[in-house]
Amino acid sequence: MMGEPLPDDTVARLLAGDRGATARAISAVENDASEAAPLLRAVHAHIGRARVLGITGPPGAGKSTLTGALISAYLNRGMRIAVVAVDPSSPISGGAILGDRVRLGMHQSEERVFIRSVASRGYAGGLSRATARVIDVLDAAGYGVVIVETVGAGQSDVEIGLLADTRVVVCPAGLGDEVQAIKSGLLEIADIYAVNKADSPFAERTERDLAGMIQLRNYTGWIPQIVRTVATSGAGVEALVEAISAHEASGGARIGPRERVHRLIAAGTADWVKGCIDLHSSPALDVLCEAYARGDIAPREAWRKALALVLDRERH
Question: Which residue range forms the structural domain that includes residue 26?
Fold first, then answer.
């Protein structure tokens, strides 16, 4: 993609924490500019230090307000914090349309905070394709905590589990029966549940529903915690930060850059193969489907043969 070339000192300034260089580097990787690949290679030795915190949940849960409260809490601990707010895309320009930078604007003037909205550009899973690369840039720039706030489309936001070390699912008080409706996806990725708007009389019921769901699952190691928060007043935010620290101290899912990329490649490959098979029509695939339906072929063998058909078509 064409664009203004990056200055020669961009990498050095990025590693020194320069905000302008950081912004330009993010634009390069988000737009897949020609400079993106060499830039990422240059900073590769300087990544893997940031703790990545995922904030997700259904629309209206108060994710952005809670993110702002978490920024304040981490600032009070003397940390540098970056936020990647993934917004839905404009169908016309492809740009972000919700503008979480506006909702988090109170922190924009703080030197230790960097906030960037990126457009999902129609990418399923609540994230942008470039999110992992943006995280690496912010990691290299020396931000100790990188908060990734997803689009908030509900159950589709589970892909944050591929990127974040700690996943916080924000549930508004009064979620009620909706817990049952979305528990098979979004709620199951949580390391911590934040029952937000907990000054509501429905908070206790929501917490009880979540606790019941946790008891029905078999966990090894970390058991998800439930924390009540009122993001607008800051109530419960310190308890949430302590729960996040406890998850980190427990050795819970620390995802390094290599594993993050591994997971994304695995997920992307699966999506690509599925799309190819969904769109592929051939006599060989019809025969395979019929054999599988009759039980003449084991599932694993059917998958291998389907993959072979996709790869054979790609080669030709």
Answer: 1-44
